[in-house]
Design a protein that fits this description.
Blueprint lengths: L2 E7 L3 H15 L5 E6 L14 E5 L5 H12 L4 E5 L4 E2 L4 H10 L3 E9 L9 E3 L3 H6 L1 H8 L9 E3 L3 E5 H7 L11 H11 L4 E11 L10 H17 L6 H22 L6 H16 L2
Parallel strand pairs: 1-2, 1-4, 2-3, 6-10
Antiparallel strand pairs: 4-9, 5-10, 6-9, 7-8
């Protein structure tokens, strides 16, 4: 089986270099091509990469999902690995990946475990979300998940470290570009789970370094994008239940959080958080 690696990039050439060097160090003889898709970075490539590396540069900034799709569609491999630029190999992977796909013709996607420098799990997989997770919010749902509340048995790997069968991607019509960056990976995983003949497997024995969170700024704009994308994901997969009740309960939670923040503002500066909650309340009101 021919194997391709796709790496999306936005102004992280030094991380792309580290990523590629790690892949070639462990699996040079098993990787056939490496495609780096640069999303119109301010700094163009200045690194002399291996002959296996092909650079594709967008003519304008297209954001994550469209950038990844360009790489996936250009890849000629039967198997396509997708790694964030700040991920890198810490062990040989490709022989095992080929074996897994060869032994199970229905396997369309493999999720890897991601770890930090100390080998601690950094969380490259989560259970399929429900509308209750939307209402509870990211932090509360994360806490409740530890007690198996709202837990689905279907696991969704993040796209920072994952492998696909090319013909599975083609049948799924690649990532859904309705999601500019958040939730596109969860959407394709949910579509694979719902497919009549494709399977998805999370394999924690396959480990990649990735701390996560560097590709998208963590501020209220990202939170807005999360809620907008999560709502679209729930709607697309018919998991909203009563949309009116879900919106009403979520709006109440944000209203309570706003009141708490206004009290905290008496003794510390939380103006950005208050502004963020106001925008979130408006977003929730406008969701359809």
């Amino acid at each position: 089986m021919k194997v391709s690696l796709v790496i999306p990039n936005y102004n992280t050439w030094h991380l792309v270099e580290r990523n590629i060097n790690s892949v070639l160090h462990f699996d040079d003889n098993l990787i056939d091509e490496i495609i780096v898709v640069d999303d119109y970075s301010p700094t163009e490539n200045y690194i002399n990469f291996s002959n296996k590396v092909k650079i594709i540069r967008n003519e304008q900034n297209l954001l994550y999902t469209k950038t990844v799709n360009i790489g996936l569609k250009h890849a000629s491999g039967d198997i396509i690995l997708l790694l964030d630029s700040d991920a890198y190999f810490i062990m040989p992977l490709i022989e095992k990946i080929i074996q897994l796909f060869s032994n199970n013709k229905s396997l369309g996607c493999i999720g890897f475990k991601t770890v930090d420098e100390s080998g601690n799990d950094t969380g490259n997989v989560l259970p399929e979300p429900s509308i209750l997770s939307f209402i509870a919010g990211q932090q509360l749902h994360k806490l409740l998940r530890n007690y198996n509340i709202f837990q689905s048995k279907k696991l969704l790997p993040f796209s920072c470290a994952v492998a696909f069968k090319k013909n599975c991607l083609q049948e799924m019509n690649y990532l859904d570009e309705q999601f500019p960056y958040l939730e596109a990976d969860h959407d394709i995983s949910m579509r694979i789970h719902r497919s009549s003949h494709w399977q998805l497997q999370y394999v924690p024995e396959l480990m990649v370094y990735h701390k996560g969170g560097s590709s998208i700024a963590k501020n209220y704009k990202r939170v807005l994008q999360f809620y907008e994308s999560r709502w679209l994901l729930m709607k697309k997969h018919n998991k909203l239940g009563s949309a009116f009740i879900a919106k009403w309960l979520t709006y109440i939670r944000f209203s309570i959080e706003t009141l708490v923040l206004q009290f905290q503002s008496l003794y510390k500066n939380v103006d950005d958080k208050i502004e963020g909650r106001k925008k979130l309340k408006q977003l929730i009101k406008n969701l359809k």
